[in-house]
Specification:
heterodimer; A: about 170 residues; mainly alpha; 6 helices; flat; B: about 500 residues; 2 domains; two-stranded antiparallel sheet; 20 helices
């Protein structure tokens, strides 16, 4: 039966099984919970167990659904559209851009992190005008930085430019 | 009734102060903007602006958020009609006839009937909201914790099974949302769940981080993975956004019928704006004298669903304000906004914070009028926005989303969570799982647990209390009739076909 499953179905089968495992995992985590002394009538474990059971149940139901050949219709597709494999290269670029932002934000400051992130996302989405993109990224990050810190009084890390941009 | 009227007048006084008017105007502008732009909706926009709750006063901020909520409905129809890629779920149906009308050179009439229909429906529905919500709140004061739990379970079931094409996938989204809602310390005992020893996780996962990441990052990752970045064709609009006498004659009844369908389906947790807009389309198609025009650009097919969409948006605010139960992603974010001011929407809201809630309702009337002005004469300005290249659009949305996730607590932990949730958002889109049930699960899950525990504390651990009393019984009976009944019926039908 499994051998008949298409490439699309295999991916979805992994997704559905991991949901089932998520439910099991939540149940395991709940069973190991440290319950503080003097707890109330209702154990703090009761609700998580219900959620764990529900999650495994729907995960299992989805596994069966996929095994019966009822695959998902990806967002934006019509039922019966040709299956398009994911482009993991562009996704990787995008994740790198976001990851750099996360790492650099508190080290190099908002303007640097946001400029690189904006530029990286534009690149992932196919833009190849490097210099123009860089200019737009810098202007975007600068406007956001100033309108948040000066306009809304919300602090953002200033990084390298602490002296120049002011705090 | 009379009291509501007096309170509403006070509300208008609140809403008409220069500061609040300015925030209302800003909100309608931003709302239309995010409605027009593909890839960014009202839930995301309000989520991104939540950090302003740190510095702006509650009334002004909530007026702006409500204006964004209404504004996005107007903006969404513009994108549907001219681009055929609906900006938000309530506009999917609008694209059916609206885009055909635009192709036939009747974009102006389609845009006009959408905007005026939205105004008519929005105004009537807001009136119903102003008088219905306090009544519901008064009744809700008598609801016991077990009754609340039954309402939440009903909301879970309807949002989980009515959205999207597949019931199982809706429930999958709900389950993942409930799991995310579990993370952190248990409110009553302080027991830690799913924190993996991470101190940052003790306070739980920020709802806003989840919302921002699942919409913005999830969408960006998904689009990048598909790399289907063929520029979409923006249809030209000739002449003004206005309609002829004949268009009017054909539109006014669908507007009213759309309102009548949209509002009640928003009040009861019927799962978002897809159902009412779809129903309205079906009704107009069945009643129309020009059936052959449907599918080729029938104005009724734009007028009805657009009115239903706006009336539905107002209807959703009724349980949000009076019960504290959000049934759409946007209502959920507005609820979070209330909470960040330490205001809890629910039965007491009309008594504890009358100036805020009535100012908010009054501002909805003003916002509706402003939106009509913003959308009809200024339509050309909004159309220009559709020409922003998609790589800059998504670069901006992604960067903004990361900012929104960070600025709430100034914590990079929230950013890591955002990246993880963004990946979940990607998987959901890839595997046809709807997003809204997840958000409802994250927000209402902890609330369900609270009412669950309270009920059992009242009864000293006796589980019978959960179905005791007439209110929970009525709710569970409804649940069986509406959700479980049709499931069984469908199963029987399938079985009969097989035989």
């Amino acid at each position: 039966m499994i051998s008949k499953i298409s490439k699309q179905g295999k991916g979805e089968l992994v997704f559905a099984s991991s949901l089932f495992l998520l439910g099991i995992f939540v149940a395991w985590d709940t069973s190991k919970m440290d319950i503080p002394q003097g707890s109330s009538i209702v154990s703090p474990q009761a609700f998580p167990y219900i959620v764990a059971f529900f999650t495994s149940l729907v995960g299992l139901a989805l596994v069966l659904e996929v095994l019966r050949g009822r695959y998902a219709t990806p967002d934006g597709n019509e039922p019966g559209d040709q299956f398009v494999p994911a482009n993991f290269k562009t996704m990787a670029i995008l994740v790198t851009a976001i990851g750099l932002h996360v790492i650099l934000l508190e080290i190099a400051g908002y303007v640097v992190a946001a400029t690189l992130c904006f530029w990286g996302v534009a690149f992932a989405f196919g833009s190849r005008k490097y210099l123009k993109d860089f200019g737009i990224s810098l202007v975007f990050a600068g406007i956001v930085y100033f309108s948040f810190t000066k306009g809304l009084n919300i602090n953002l890390p200033s990084g390298f430019f602490e002296g120049i941009l002011g705090k | 009734m009379g009291n509501s009227f007096a309170m509403l007048m006070d509300g208008f006084q609140t809403a008409f102060t220069p500061t609040n008017l300015m925030f209302g105007l800003l909100g309608t502008f931003l709302g239309t903007l995010v409605g027009v732009l593909p890839g960014i909706g009202p839930a995301l926009a309000i989520g991104l602006l939540l950090p302003i709750t740190l510095t702006v006063n509650p009334t002004s901020a909530l007026i702006m958020f409500a204006a964004i909520y209404y504004g996005a409905m107007y903006g969404g129809s513009t994108t549907s009609i001219l681009l055929n890629t609906p900006g938000e779920s309530g506009s999917v149906i609008t694209a059916l006839e609206g885009n055909k009308m635009a192709k036939a050179g009747r974009a102006g009439a389609a845009l006009a009937t959408a905007a005026i229909g939205s105004f008519v429906a929005g105004t009537i529905a807001t009136l119903l909201l102003a008088f219905g919500a306090p009544t519901l709140a008064e009744f809700a004061l008598t609801i016991q914790p077990a009754g609340y739990l039954s309402l939440i379970i009903l909301a879970f079931a309807t949002v989980g099974t009515l959205l999207g094409a597949s019931r199982i996938r809706g429930l999958v989204a709900l389950a993942v949302g409930l799991v995310i809602g579990l993370v952190g310390a248990d409110l009553q005992s302080g027991a830690l769940r799913l924190t993996f020893g991470n101190l940052n996780a003790i306070d739980g996962i920020e709802t806003v981080t989840v919302i921002v990441a699942i919409f913005a990052l999830g969408e960006a990752l998904y689009l990048a993975s598909r790399h289907s970045l063929v520029p979409v064709e923006v249809l030209k609009m000739r002449g003004k956004a206005w309609m002829t006498k004949d268009d009017f004659r054909r539109s006014w009844k669908p507007w009213l019928r759309g309102t009548a369908i949209g509002f009640p389906l928003g009040v009861i947790p019927a799962g978002g704006s897809e159902v009412p807009t779809f129903l309205s389309y079906g009704v107009e198609k069945a009643l129309s004298k020009n059936k052959d025009e449907f599918g080729k650009g029938a104005i009724e097919g734009v007028a009805g669903p657009e009115a239903a969409n706006n009336a539905n948006a107002a209807g959703v605010l009724v349980p949000m304000l009076a019960l504290g139960l959000p049934t759409s992603a946007t209502a959920a974010v507005v609820l979070v906004a209330f909470q960040s001011f330490n205001i809890q929407p629910g039965p007491m809201l009309f008594q504890t914070n009358p100036e805020i809630v009535w100012g908010l309702i009054a501002s909805l009337f003003i916002g509706n009028a402003l939106l009509l002005v913003l959308n009809l004469p200024l339509i050309r300005f909004w159309v220009l926005l559709l020409k922003i290249p998609s790589h800059y659009l998504y670069a901006g949305i992604t960067t903004f989303a990361l900012l929104g996730a960070y600025a709430l607590n100034n914590s990079t932990f929230d950013l890591q969570v955002a990246l993880a949730v963004g990946f979940i958002g990607y998987l959901f889109r890839r595997f046809g799982v709807p997003i809204t049930p997840l958000i409802i699960g994250v927000i209402l899950g902890p609330l369900a647990e609270l009412y669950f525990k309270r009920s059992l504390q009242i009864s000293q651990g006796d589980w019978h209390i959960l179905i005791d009393g007439s209110f929970p019984k009525v709710i569970y009976a409804t649940l069986f009739l509406v959700i479980i009944g049709p499931l069984v019926w469908n199963f029987k039908k399938k079985f009969a076909v097989k035989k």
